Amino acid sequence: MIFVTVGSRNYPFNRLFEKIDKLYEKGLLTEPMFAQIGTSTYVPRNYSYKDFISPEEFIKKIKEADIVVTHGASGSIMKALNARKKVIAVTRLEKYGEHINNHQIQNNEAFSSNGYVLMADLELTDLEECFKKIEDGTDGLIPWENKDPLAIVNLIDKFIQENW
């Protein structure tokens, strides 16, 4: 199962759900999917969804999933990585009204540059390729090992200091 989560902030992420529907319609995705769509107004046609789910249901969906597709919120990414799931990170962009700024770019790039997640390009044109890499085992992802409670903070901070 694929679990997609975009959080609960008051910003829609319609282009992600439209893109996923197109992948199903083209037969490029066939695995069952459940999406937590938040305040998105796009209504998925090819997979199950709810606007919001409880924290308990969120954890349950992560446990059930083989792949977690998540926006650039470090909490959602960390929950998936701690559950040892394959993660595809998608970025909400300010120019589409999906967030207040573009900070998710830095979060996703930090996780991706260290090999913990696959980061879809900002326009989601390679989302299909991300799924294929996981499916055929060529994703190159490194399993996350949380030995230091501040590891994620340090990882993101280091990336920002070196790249911004």
What does this protein look like?
This protein is an alpha/beta fold. The protein has a single domain (2-163), classed as Glycogen Phosphorylase B (Rossmann fold, 3-Layer(aba) Sandwich). It contains 6 helices and 6 strands. Helix 3 links the parallel strand 4 and strand 5 (86-89). The longest helix has 13 residues, at 151-163.
Defining key terms:
164 residues; globular; 40% helix; alpha/beta
Short characterization:
The chain is α/β, with parallel strands linked by helices and 164 residues long. It has a single domain, classed as Rossmann fold, CATH 3.40.50.2000. It has helices at 14-25, 55-64, 74-82, 103-113, 127-136, 151-163; strands at 2-5, 33-36, 48-50, 67-70, 86-89, 118-119.
Question: What is this structure's SSE topology?
Answer:
Layout: E1 2-5, H1 14-25, E2 33-36, E3 48-50, H2 55-64, E4 67-70, H3 74-82, E5 86-89, H4 103-113, E6 118-119, H5 127-136, H6 151-163
Parallel strand pairs: 1-2, 1-4, 2-3, 4-5, 5-6
Helix pairs in contact: 4-6
